[in-house]
Amino acid sequence: MRSETSGRAGLYIRLSKEDARDRESESVSNQRSLLLDYAEKQGFAVAGIYVDDGYSGTSFDRPAFQRLIGDIRAGTIDTVLTKDMSRLGRDYILTGHYLERFFPEHGVRYISLLDNVDTASGPIDDITPIKAIFNDFYARDISRKITAVKRDKQRKGLFVGGKAPYGYRLVRDETRRFAIDECAAIVVRRMFQLALQGESCRAIAVRLNSEGIPSPAAYANLTVANPGPRSGQWSAERIAAMLKNEVYIGSMVQGKQCKLGYKVGKSRRLPPEEWTIVEHTHPPLVERSAFEQVQRQIESRRRTRSRKHDLPLKGLVFCCECGHPLGVVERMLASSGSTLYFLCRSYQRFPREGLCTSHCMRVDAVARAISDQLAPVFQTCARSFDFETCALQALQSRANVRDVPDIHQRMASIEQTIDRIYADKLAGGLEEADFQRLYTKAIRERSRLQSDVSEYKAP
Questions:
Q1: Contact predicate 68/101, CB 8 Å
Q2: DSSP for 379-445?
Q3: Does residue 300 sit in helix, strand or coil?
Q4: Strand, helix or coil at 254?
Q5: CA 79, CA 109: separation in Å to the nearest integer?
Q6: Is 217 exposed, middle or buried (0-12, 13-18, 19+ CB in 10 A)?
Q7: What does each of the 459 residues of the chain score in pLDDT, given as a tens digit?
Q8: pTM score above 0.70
Q9: How far apart are CA 266 and CA 258, in angstroms?
Q10: Which residues does residue 363 pair with via DSSP β-bridges, in sequence order?
């Protein structure tokens, strides 16, 4: 049995952007100095220092923290030191999981210096979970304040993003206004001019690529101090999005998406009527009359396309050379009539850019090859499974969860249920056996929905 004053300690340090702004004493160097001094005085052998600088405590998907967890599983760490419990995390459910489950299961001693928590002295007391809840409340409050400040700035026409749109540069002062980037602005103005002359978005993209004009992504690399390998091509989708962007007539367009929750890193796109648009915030690149004329031309070319071919393999077949999804085209053959082919979209969209080569394959040939591979598997499974019941369950699942927004809404509801379950347990209104049963059921349902996100796509 190891001594209470010795062990292989992992020093965990975390600093979020909010902490760096609001609490100077929470700096990384101060945390490191405090923990090293404590470890030396108590006789701990420091096996590793794990630093997450600029990561929120509401998520435990942090690189240094995950390395710490990996070292604990590998048996190289048997003691974890933090300055206080909020450095470990601000999600009280997951914080409780690590304090009451993961660390004890792996024989890890946890010490929080300022909270006077040391699991070597006995089980977690009743006050410790309450401290974790208050840390969670702090994160929730900070999230609300930050969101309110951003919304207020957006309504005032102040830019709250990271970089200016193509054609502008960001003036990094208190106004955070847009100034014209003349090099890129020439391309934007020409783009609108070509559109007014009747050229399609695809034709404009082909023209810009053939002339070697850098795409927005490639141009951004040319203007930074340490350009990376990132590059790209102009596409019809990029051209269309820029031609419809009101930023080029001097309007600030923000709030196109919102986060699903302060503990959820994903966002959902808002409909255009919910965007925050403020006019006359910066110099325009095109006249409003020209912009409106381009919108009318784009609208006149739009047409509702009915899908001729709803293939089971749609989105599942990829090019072996460039790795992009294959599209489906219909070709008329004199001998056999209409035939469907898988075609590489990279070559189809950019035939002269060398992104891929010209190649295609018959859809029915691919379907037969896959069917031949799956037939033995189906025959084996048929002996063990009731496919009628499985198909019914699959249909019911699709009926209950039709798209990604529905899944996220259900996940948010489950998160609230988990919060209530844990709060009831802390308040003493829920027995341990009932807590375990309800908590396990909720976690299992959340995991199932997370796997559904990759299966269903938002319309």
A1: no
A2: HHHHTT--HHHHHHHHHHHHHH--SHHHHHHHHHHHHHHHHHHHHHHHTT-S-HHHHHHHHHHHHHH
A3: helix
A4: strand
A5: 5
A6: middle
A7: 344 446 789 999 998 865 555 444 458 888 999 999 999 999 999 999 999 988 888 888 889 999 999 999 999 999 999 998 888 888 877 888 888 889 988 999 999 998 888 888 876 666 776 776 766 766 677 777 777 778 888 888 888 888 889 999 988 777 778 899 999 999 999 999 999 998 888 889 888 988 889 989 888 877 554 444 444 688 888 999 999 999 999 999 888 887 776 566 677 888 888 888 889 889 999 999 999 999 888 887 765 444 555 677 777 788 877 777 777 777 666 566 677 877 776 666 666 666 677 777 788 788 888 888 888 877 776 665 554 555 555 545 544 444 556 677 777 778 777 777 776 777 666 677 777 877 888 888 877 777 766 655 444
A8: no
A9: 9
A10: none
Q: Three-class SS of residue 258?
A: strand
Rg over CA atoms, the chain: 28
Helix (H), strand (E) at residue 38: helix 28-42
C-alpha distance from residue 161 to each of 109, 190, 222, 348 (Å): 42, 26, 20, 34
Half-sphere exposure of 286 (CA within 13 A, CB side): 27
- Report the distance separating Cα 367 and Cα 375, nearest Å: 12
CA nearest to 256, candidates 273, 242, 275: 275
Specify the residue for token string 């003691």: 79
